[in-house]
Design goal:
By secondary structure, the protein is α/β, with parallel strands linked by helices. The chain has one domain: Carbon-nitrogen hydrolase (Nitrilase/N-carbamoyl-D-aminoacid amidohydrolase), CATH 3.60.110. Helices cover about 25% and strands about 25% of the residues. The protein is built from six helices and 15 strands. Strand 7, helix 3 (about 175-180) and strand 8 form a beta-alpha-beta unit. Helix 3 (about 175-180) runs parallel beside helix 4 (about 200-225). The longest helix is centred in the last third of the chain and has 22 residues, at about 200-225.
Length: about 300
């Protein structure tokens, strides 16, 4: 068993970064008090969802790694003796920025990072203006990429555990989930900022939320692993973030879910024995036709 905590909260435009960090710290402490050995934040947890507009002023939210934001997370992990995965706006170099998730161990050390690979560009989600995608795989001697998709080995509660770090828009891509699971991930983590636009109809809002839940439950089913989605809540300008953070078990059952419209500390036990049990019953990894998928390396298969 691994006891996991997810924190879901609002980041009102009137809040400062320091105020948002204080909210997150209280919730992380709450999760740890409930026995969580690993806690995960939502996407860009300590600031507004700034990609609603394209403006150079928004780059002020970026920080290097390590930096003040990561120091805050590292100090908190060390204080509480937990593993902590947080989502950050990273300034990698002058003019080069990433949407980055990191894993911190109970000593306060950063033990792994992942830079978001899929970057959206939609109305009110202008992320390509701000974020470069993570570096693609670099082939090693076995022809298998050792960058891009990755898992991070940690030991929450003394249990060997491999966490797959992905971010938001990645959650719509079965390829990302599969390649991370093939690297041994027992749980996929998706810190998220997804919302309804104020001009959309209520039935369309519900359809979008259902699709968001369905695709991630599908990753849990297809890969026989846990899926953990952590979404913010609250209203920021034209967007209403729909919360609904949840954990899906291997096989797709939702074992914990947060409300749509208010903060929540979600704590649940991950029974890692369910991974092998589900993969024995649904042996999708065994039956994959790895000799027949070359077409996936193309953008589109023209002329077929």
């Amino acid at each position: 068993m691994v006891r996991l905590g997810l924190i879901q909260h609002a980041c009102p435009p009137s809040n400062t970064v320091e105020q948002n960090r204080a909210v997150a710290a209280d919730m992380i402490r709450d999760a740890a008090a409930q026995g969580a050995q690993l806690v995960a934040t939502q996407e860009l947890f300590d600031g507004p969802y700034f990609p609603q507009v394209e403006s150079d002023e928004q780059f002020r939210y970026a920080e290097p790694i390590p930096g003040p934001r990561t120091a805050f997370l590292c100090d908190l992990a060390k204080e509480l003796g937990i593993f902590l995965t947080g989502s950050c706006f990273e300034r990698r170099a002058p003019g080069l920025y990433h949407n980055t998730s990191l894993m911190i161990d109970p000593s306060g050390a950063i033990v792994g990072t992942y830079r978001k690979m899929h970057i959206p560009d939609d109305p009110r989600f202008f992320e390509k203006y701000y974020f470069a995608p993570g570096d693609g795989p670099v082939a090693n001697g076995n022809g298998v990429g050792d960058a891009g998709w990755k898992t991070i080995g940690i030991t929450p509660g003394g249990t060997d555990f491999r966490a797959g770090l992905l971010v938001c828009w990645d959650q719509w891509y079965p390829e990302a989930a599969r390649l991370t699971a093939l690297r041994g991930a027992q749980a996929l983590f998706y810190p998220t900022a997804i919302a309804w636009h104020k001009e959309e109809a209520q039935d369309e809002n519900q359809r979008q939320r259902d699709a968001w839940i369905t695709i991630q439950r599908s990753h849990a089913i297809a890969n026989g692993c846990f899926v953990c989605a952590i979404n913010r809540t609250g209203v920021e300008d034209d967007l209403t973030f729909w919360g609904s953070s949840f954990i899906a078990a291997p096989g797709g059952t939702v074992i914990a879910e947060a409300p749509v419209d208010r903060p929540a500390v979600l704590v649940a036990d991950l029974d890692l024995s369910l991974i092998e049990h589900n993969r024995q019953g649904w042996p999708f990894l065994r039956d994959r036709r790895v000799d027949a998928y070359a077409g996936l390396l193309h953008r589109y298969l023209d002329g077929t």
